[in-house]
Design brief:
Elements: E1 3-8, E2 18-23, H1 32-41, H2 43-54, E3 66-70, E4 78-83, H3 94-111, E5 115-118, H4 130-143, E6 150-155, H5 158-171
Parallel strand pairs: 1-6, 2-4, 2-5, 5-6
Antiparallel strand pairs: 3-4
Helix pairs in contact: 3-4, 4-5
Organism: Streptomyces ziwulingensis
Pfam families: Macro
Protein name: O-acetyl-ADP-ribose deacetylase
Length: about 170
């Protein structure tokens, strides 16, 4: 069974085999986690993303899917980019958010990654309520058939950490 841990801190400072990027579909950087990982990881990540866009992902990475690149200057071997859904009060997009976690772990398994650090996908500018995102993310990781030994959720602030901690406590 995969060990799930929670850390409050800066995802760009984590040491793991793979760090998950809450990317936008362009794969070319942006705000929030995406921009921070591109800035700290340096130009190698952007160059790898441009190669993906020039090839199979010419129209961008679809929501709920995941793909890996080098981690550049980050303390990881890979960055796994996944595109989270924008939250909607009128449409249930929970399956897409769960897919981000399943697909990221599937890619991690293909790479041989044993430690994976996730952000709270879709909870920034995409507006997903933290408590619900925690419920979906933790359930998806718990249900995943994966060889990953540790999934670490790296949560930016007290509020995010508290939401994930409360949900994780209910799963144990």
């Amino acid at each position: 069974m995969t060990d799930i841990t929670l850390v409050q801190g800066d995802l760009t400072r984590e040491s793991a085999d793979a760090i998950v990027n809450a990317a936008n579909s362009s794969l070319l950087g942006g705000g929030g986690v995406d921009g921070a990982l591109h800035r700290r990881g340096g130009p190698a990540i952007l160059a790898a993303c441009r190669e993906l866009r020039a090839g199979h992902y010419g129209k961008g990475l679809p929501t709920g899917r995941a793909v890996a690149t080098t981690a550049g200057d980050l303390d990881a071997r890979w960055v796994i980019h996944t595109v989270g859904p924008v939250w909607s009060a009128g449409e249930d997009r929970s399956a897409l958010l769960a897919s981000c976690h399943h697909e990221s772990l599937r890619v991690a398994d293909q790479l041989g990654a044993r430690t994976v650090a996730f952000p709270a996908i879709s909870t920034g500018v995409y507006g997903w309520p933290l408590e619900d995102a925690a419920r979906i993310a933790l359930a998806a990781v718990r249900a995943a058939d994966t060889e990953v030994e540790e999934v670490r959720f790296v949560l930016f602030d007290d509020r995010a950490h508290a939401a994930f901690a409360a949900r994780l406590g209910r799963l144990r």
